[in-house]
Every structure is written in structure tokens, then in C-alpha cells.
Amino acid sequence: DTQVIMVSVDPRRDTPEKLNEYVGFFNDEYLGLSGEYIEIFKFATQLNIAFAYSPGEDEDYLVSHSGEIVLVNPNGEFHGFFKVPHDPVKMAENYAVVRTRWD
To answer: What is the DSSP letter of 83?
Structure first.
């Protein structure tokens, strides 16, 4: 009953088709979301997630972002980070502990 959502921070290039294809490389059950830049910026700020654009010509710009995985509880509230480097075993253990607080 956990939903993984990958949020694009590059709505200019990440069309719904591209985002769907990218997310599918990870897992077909994951969701990919995008939107207007200002909405993504507000969302990222609320979650304390950093991203930045490096200028380039036309579509030739870079987008840098952190690799943290944000944990949001079923009430839509920030609950924590899984910071890089990700250790799947520790992540699973920590998630199991945190998850018991939601039931």
C-alpha cells in the first residue's frame, strides 16, 4: 500500500510521455508527476529538496538535483529523508519502523 512517486524538476523537457518511459525503467507501478515550474519549486521547497538549472542554449541546459528520497506519510506530511548513498537494507528497516507509526 505504498506509492512511489517520481517528480520531475524539468517540466520543459519532461513531457508526460518521456516521464512515463523514464519512470517505467524503475518500476511500472511507480507514478511520474510534473507540472508548472512554480508549483514544482514550491513543492520542492516544502520538502527541502534542492534543484538548480545551469544555463545552456535552447534545450541544452543542465538540471542538477539531490538524490534524496523523501518519505511523505498518508496524511501528505513530510516524514523524513533517505539520503544518499542509499542502502536498500537499511532503508527497508527504517521504513518498517516508521510505517508502524502510521497505522
So the answer is: P
In angstroms, the CA 19 to CA 35 distance is: 11
Backbone phi, psi, residue 83, to 5°? -85, 160
Q: Which three cell numbers stand for residue 80?
A: 523524513
- Residues 6 or more apart in contact with residue 73 via CB below 8 angstroms: 79, 102
pLDDT per residue as tens digits for the range 6-26: 999 999 899 999 999 999 999
Counting beta carbons within 10 angstroms of the beta carbon of residue 47, is it exposed (0 to 12), middle (13 to 18) or buried (19 or more)? middle
Q: To which residue does cell 534543484 refer? A: 51
Could you tell me if 65 and 50 are in contact, meaning their C-beta atoms sit under 8 angstroms apart?
Answer: yes
What the block records as the C-alpha cell of 19 is 516521464
The tally of CA atoms less than 13 A away on the side-chain side of residue 52 is: 3
This prediction has a pTM of 0.82
